[in-house]
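Slide 14.
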Amino acid sequence: MNPNPRQMTLLSVVQAQGSVTVEVLADKLGVTLQTVRRDVQRLADEGLLTRFHGGVRVPSSTVENIAYRQREILNAVGKARIAKAVAAAVPNGCSLILNIGTTTEAIARELLQHTGLRVITNNLNVAATLSANPNAEVIVVGGVVRGRDQGIVGEAAVDFIRQFKVDIGLIGISAIEADGSLRDFDYREVKVSQTIISHAREVWVAADSSKFKRPAMVEVAQLSQIDRLFSDALPPEPFMDLLDEAQVRFELAAP
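Slide 15: predicted structure.
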């Protein structure tokens, strides 16, 4: 489905609050309860939301991520803002590794006007996008391709990345828990992300606001292992304290 503007606003409200009653949604959107219930049902049928008695919440699972096409839709506006902020911070003439994720794909689109980039990626969607930039060299990691999102994972991908040391490792992440851990769902993908972190002079994480306090099964890293965190909204407590303690520079992608 392609959510209409009202449904996109509904999704944003739920993502910001975690869970919301139908009555609160109707009030915020200025529509009837019946309209909200129809929208909620349609979004739930697509797996974008989970219903409970009297309300709705963001889908959550510690063992399985939301489907790729659904992640493309979720908080697309916030991801676009993050992408612009990250691209503005990336200098021309540097080397990067971009990993799997819809946010890193948005970043790739914003890097099309950069010059002198050398980009390594285990994301075929990122490679296809940046190959349109005649002033960038794109290197695709070898390994097993996941058909659901065009990500490349496995030991061959890890071994390939170990050959390099890049200026910036740009990481998308599925979850940031309140203990300061960065988490994801596929341990094979996590192994690749951990290798990127250890082979980058600076590590930047791009995470929209729905990722804070979201549970996921596999630990990628701790906040202390990254340098900058880009997001579309201020994180809830206790994350600003955790970021300060870990000496991570927080970058707010303003509207």
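Speaker note: The mean pLDDT is 89.
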